[in-house]
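testing teh design pipeline on a random one, pls ignore if ur not involved
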């Protein structure tokens, strides 16, 4: 028996981004979420608490063991929400923020956001997603992905964690060695908190650029957790 895989997307994205990976994981039970911190209406974007509650709600609907994967910002709500009591057997941080209690995404960057982020009062927009997120991705797929990007909530990026699930659950960090969004040196530092470190020679979105290779890394984790 294989565990169910719950996929939690990063900032500005949605469940749509996982489609090539889900196809590559044929035979694996997969669930996704759409985080409330992402959307088109700046006045209706959710907080980290809302995102964590969405993850908890998804876990409550899954029977049996679950592997929860967070990509990029998605590592933060899974760190806040995942528990063994909710059926979570393993955490996977895919070039993600594996932070500790009291940390926030912006805080982990020293309070300085990268120049490719346009920060407004309530939301953040990405100005150059093609080179930052999609290096190594097919140009046509990149164009479709860029057209679907939303705004991301400022509050979700600045709210500190109240829990660190990786202190209680086994975890794997997947370092993406061509990532232009989260420097490899930062990934390596966060990966020291994980029990296992794997690597992909990929940019920030391997679920689009290398779905088969990413699926091959995930299958053994899912088999062990099941």
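output:
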């Amino acid at each position: 028996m294989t565990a169910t895989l719950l996929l939690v997307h990063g900032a500005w994205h949605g469940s749509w981004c996982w489609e090539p990976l889900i196809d590559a994981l044929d035979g694996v039970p997969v669930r996704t979420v759409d985080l409330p911190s992402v959307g088109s209406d700046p006045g209706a974007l959710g907080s980290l608490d809302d995102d964590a509650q969405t993850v908890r709600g998804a876990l409550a609907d899954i029977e049996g063991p679950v592997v929860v994967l967070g990509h990029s910002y998605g590592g933060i709500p899974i760190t806040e929400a995942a528990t063994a009591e909710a059926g979570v057997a393993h955490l996977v941080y895919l070039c993600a923020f594996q932070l500790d209690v009291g940390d926030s995404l912006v805080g982990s960057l020293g309070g300085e956001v990268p120049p490719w982020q346009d920060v407004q009062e309530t939301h953040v927009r990405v100005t150059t997603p093609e080179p930052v997120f999609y290096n190594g991705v097919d140009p046509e797929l990149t164009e479709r992905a860029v057209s679907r990007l939303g705004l991301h909530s400022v509050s979700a990026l600045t709210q500190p964690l109240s829990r660190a699930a990786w202190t209680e659950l086994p975890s794997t960090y997947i370092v993406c060695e061509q990532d232009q969004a989260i420097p490899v040196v930062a990934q390596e530092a966060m990966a020291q908190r994980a029990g296992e470190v794997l690597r992909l020679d990929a940019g920030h979105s391997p679920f689009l650029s290398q779905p088969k290779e990413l699926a091959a890394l995930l299958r053994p984790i899912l088999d062990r957790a099941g």
